[in-house]
């Protein structure tokens, strides 16, 4: 059976949360990896069933009521997840940013589109930084959250980098941004 990134996301969430329904997974993803990993949430309803059929998840269905399906990680699933976590990641960082795509095609639009786009992006990145900093303030010192704060730190760095870029673009100050990047470059 071919395992996708979504397969590992499902197994990883169950490994962290414990037994989960697809709805539990959807909520947990929206409050965590959903900030940086976007995919159709319908997959969180179909993928657990596929993983259960492969023996990587165990399925428990309620006898009465809504007959909710709760999935838990099997030992085979835990092994597959651990192998994936330990394997090298040869894929290069991929950013699927609609704003960057619009910026690429900017010359086909109106001259003031870039400025509007930059202002919109500044607002969005400032909001995301505030959200992330709020998460750090609420959970940063809690022992259970400490391993996940590493990902949040990467998110903050990326948001600040994007904010620096869009702010420089909005202020027609890309030369300053280039100079600062050159000064920070340890390769000289």
Automatic annotation (TrEMBL):
<dbReference type="InterPro" id="IPR036390">
    <property type="entry name" value="WH_DNA-bd_sf"/>
</dbReference>
<dbReference type="InterPro" id="IPR005149">
    <property type="entry name" value="Tscrpt_reg_PadR_N"/>
</dbReference>
<protein>
    <submittedName>
        <fullName>DNA-binding PadR family transcriptional regulator</fullName>
    </submittedName>
</protein>
<dbReference type="InterPro" id="IPR036388">
    <property type="entry name" value="WH-like_DNA-bd_sf"/>
</dbReference>
<keyword id="KW-0175">Coiled coil</keyword>
<dbReference type="InterPro" id="IPR018309">
    <property type="entry name" value="Tscrpt_reg_PadR_C"/>
</dbReference>
<dbReference type="Pfam" id="PF03551">
    <property type="entry name" value="PadR"/>
</dbReference>
<dbReference type="Pfam" id="PF10400">
    <property type="entry name" value="Vir_act_alpha_C"/>
</dbReference>
<feature type="coiled-coil region">
    <location>
        <begin position="115"/>
        <end position="142"/>
    </location>
</feature>
<dbReference type="GO" id="GO:0003677">
    <property type="term" value="F:DNA binding"/>
</dbReference>
<feature type="domain" description="Transcription regulator PadR N-terminal">
    <location>
        <begin position="16"/>
        <end position="83"/>
    </location>
</feature>
<feature type="domain" description="Transcription regulator PadR C-terminal">
    <location>
        <begin position="95"/>
        <end position="165"/>
    </location>
</feature>
<keyword id="KW-0238">DNA-binding</keyword>
